């Protein structure tokens, strides 16, 4: 008996990204991207791992799609590697790159699986980084050129398009904290990058609308429910600032057409506020069909005099955590969904990522009994169900991730997949969580 039944047209899917699974980093005309470069620099990545081979999905995509079919998964979110299409980032087109993605999309459609494409999942062509990357307005236009070609090639086949994956991570981890490619540590640059990424998003949405395509387009943001460590005035203010820093800066720009006043004032005082015009904000505010959200955990923050630049630091609570050290806090997903519904006019929402890394092992029977992951997924889906019951227009859920894959700075040390990947043999082992998720999809809900 299905105890928690989701709406009839609810989208159940899984998600991946190009650099994390494809491999073939220098095959068939692909150009270098910033993660090829960043991972080639010793010390940047756990044990100097890289995505040169990854899950070799570039060559194994058909057998991987067969697994999706076997599990009854009917929606698959993946990203296109910009440098496979434009090796230099613009201009010369690599036909073999286009042919690969056409084969991939047709193979999915042949199995009744609907593709959802992310145009940018962090892998900027290195040639564009060499001219300043996202700090350079030319890159905004090159992104539009890349998107236009993808819409022309695949716009009639692909029903869901996501312009960018997590502009906050691209700008902050890549340009303020320096722990992601391209490894820059400058908040002022980071916020300029965030602004140009949002500009490129708005321009591409406008382009999509002009091409009278039949699908839906949106953007994916990593959002977190922010909690104050105490009820002190300083900690409450710290929570408001961190909510502005991670969530409202992007949500307000995209959905309200203006950056939040409190954060503009703070960034101006810190001399890190980017330059922008009213016209820019109109472009960024182009109407989207859905908001994609990646939710993994909440953030508990406190005032910290020594924490540059926001005077906010995160608490490391002694609560159950995933292998990433992220607290398991399902209620945060409900809180986030309700807040988004209330504060952003009930916009349609897709959960474009939710999942957990655990230290999976293959047991003596050759199985992966990942009950921890099933528990994480169950609890979060229950909160998603509660949010739908309370009126949130939640339209779908893409589990992160389909396959174990290259987990950025953590390399292959963290496994998020519902399918285990033995990187020595490229053998796939379907984990118990995959069979559990297959039942959720078959029942369109949770049974216990
Ligand atoms: O870390 C798991 C996944 C990652 O593999 C995806 O490529 C990426 O889209 C993704 N985003 C988050 C959430 N945001 C985040 C926060 C701090 C550091 C890194 C990512 C988790 N994940």
Automatic annotation (TrEMBL):
Gene3D superfamilies per UniProt: Glycosidases
E.C. number(s) listed in UniProt: 3.2.1.21
GO cellular component: cytosol
Catalytic residues in the record: 166 (proton donor), 353 (nucleophile)
Cited Pfam families: Glyco_hydro_1
Keyword Hydrolase: yes
Keyword entries, A-Z: Carbohydrate metabolism, Cellulose degradation, Glycosidase, Hydrolase, Polysaccharide degradation
GO molecular function terms attached to this record: beta-glucosidase activity
Entry binding sites for substrate: 20, 121, 165, 296, 400, 407-408
Reaction(s) catalysed (UniProt annotation): Hydrolysis of terminal, non-reducing beta-D-glucosyl residues with release of beta-D-glucose
Keyword Iron: no
GO biological process, one term: cellulose catabolic process
NCBIfam families tied to this protein: BGL
Family of the protein in this entry: Belongs to the glycosyl hydrolase 1 family.
Name of protein: Beta-glucosidase
Organism from which the protein derives: Caloramator fervidus
């Amino acid at each position: 008996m299905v105890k928690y039944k989701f709406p009839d047209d609810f989208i159940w899917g899984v998600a991946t990204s190009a650099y994390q699974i494809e491999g073939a980093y220098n095959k068939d005309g692909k150009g270098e991207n910033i993660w090829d470069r960043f991972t080639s620099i010793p010390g940047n990545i756990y044990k100097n791992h890289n995505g040169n081979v990854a899950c070799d999905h570039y060559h194994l995509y058909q057998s991987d799609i067969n697994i999706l079919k076997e599990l009854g998964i009917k929606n698959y979110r993946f990203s296109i590697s910009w440098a496979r299409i434009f090796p230099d980032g613009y201009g010369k087109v690599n036909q073999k790159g286009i042919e690969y993605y056409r084969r991939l999309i047709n193979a999915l459609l042949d199995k009744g699986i609907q593709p959802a494409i992310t145009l940018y999942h962090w892998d900027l062509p290195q040639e564009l980084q060499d001219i300043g990357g996202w700090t350079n307005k030319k890159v905004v236009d090159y992104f539009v050129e890349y998107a236009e070609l993808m819409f022309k090639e695949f716009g009639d086949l692909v029903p869901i398009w996501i312009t960018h994956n997590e502009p906050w991570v691209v700008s902050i981890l890549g340009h303020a904290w320096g722990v992601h490619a391209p490894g820059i540590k400058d908040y002022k640059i980071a916020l300029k990058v965030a602004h140009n990424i949002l500009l490129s998003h708005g321009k591409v949405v406008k382009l999509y609308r002009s091409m009278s395509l039949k699908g839906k387009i949106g953007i994916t943001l990593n959002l977190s429910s922010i909690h104050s460590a105490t009820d002190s005035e300083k900690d409450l203010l710290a929570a408001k600032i961190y909510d502005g820093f991670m969530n409202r800066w992007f949500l307000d720009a995209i959905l309200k057409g203006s950056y939040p006043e409190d954060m503009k004032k703070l960034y101006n005082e810190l001399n890190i506020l980017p330059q922008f015009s009213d016209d820019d904000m109109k472009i960024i505010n182009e109407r989207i069909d859905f908001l994609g959200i990646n939710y993994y955990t909440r953030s508990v923050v406190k005032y910290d005099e020594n924490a540059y630049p926001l005077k906010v630091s995160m608490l490391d609570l002694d609560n159950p955590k995933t292998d990433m050290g992220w607290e398991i806090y399902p209620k945060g997903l409900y809180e986030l969904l309700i807040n988004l519904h209330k504060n952003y006019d009930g916009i349609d929402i897709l959960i474009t990522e939710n999942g957990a890394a655990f230290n999976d092992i293959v047991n003596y029977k050759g199985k992966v009994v990942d009950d921890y992951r099933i528990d994480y997924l169950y609890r979060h889906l229950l909160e998603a169900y509660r949010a739908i019951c309370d009126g949130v227009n939640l339209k779908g859920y893409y589990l992160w991730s389909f396959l174990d894959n290259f987990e950025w700075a953590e390399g292959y040390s963290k496994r998020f997949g519902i399918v285990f990947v033995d990187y020595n043999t490229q053998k796939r082992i379907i984990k118990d969580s995959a069979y559990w998720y297959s039942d959720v999809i078959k029942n369109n809900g949770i049974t216990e």
